[in-house]
Amino acid sequence: MIKIEDLNVSYNNIPVLTNVNLEIPDGVSVGIIGPNGAGKSTLLKAILGLIKKDTGEISIDGMGEKYFRKKVAYVPQRSEIDLSFPITVGQVVLTGTYPNMNVFQRPGKKEKLIAQKALEKVGLTEYSERAISDLSGGQLQRVYIARALAQEADYYFLDEPFVGIDMVSEKIIIDIIRELRNQGKTIVIVHHDLHKVTEYFDQLILVNRGVEAYGDVEDTFTTDNIKKAYGNTMGDITIKGVEK
């Protein structure tokens, strides 16, 4: 279980997230949605300890941030990836095995096989020696999904994984997410396309500077909750799958 208690985050003394309290069970796929600037990525990074919290306690399986790192894999937004860094696809995926190795241990046959299987999973085996700067957006996203798979984690956090990618890559990624969920893994995804919510997620967190609603998709993805989170920015748009 992911447990978040009294989480508050601010940037330059401006509140970004206020009074967040959540308990996310194991074995579910969870979408985080909300308007631009609502604090979706901030919530993800706060859970992972990647940004400073004003207040709050985060635990995963009852363990604090210092202890759950090996259980967690993180796929950042593509905009956060330095494409100028001279590294190949295979090398990126291999770094996913590092959290499970001892200090100063170098990757061996076992780690290389894990990385190879992860690349096969995302359909990019033949790209192993290619520089990441030579990839399309969808291919690059699949590489970082493969890196997460190589970590063999229990919890997967993905920040906007479907933005600007092709349909083939999106299908491969969502199929992997479903497979992970069926294996009992927990997947938390910052998402932007409201029309795919009912298709992709078991549970939903609606965020706008705080949690406006949280629960199973069929109970949470409602017109009233969307209006609470998005205000008047949605206009009269009809969203597929929304409960009235």
From TrEMBL:
Annotated source species: Floricoccus tropicus
Keywords, in A-Z order: ATP-binding, Nucleotide-binding, Transport
InterPro entries from the UniProt entry: AAA+_ATPase, ABC_transporter-like_ATP-bd, Metal_Ion_Import_ABC, P-loop_NTPase
KW Ribonucleoprotein (keyword) present: no
Family: Belongs to the ABC transporter superfamily.
Domain ABC transporter: 2-234
Protein name: Manganese ABC transporter ATP-binding protein
Keyword RNA-binding listed: no
Gene Ontology MF terms: ATP binding; ATP hydrolysis activity
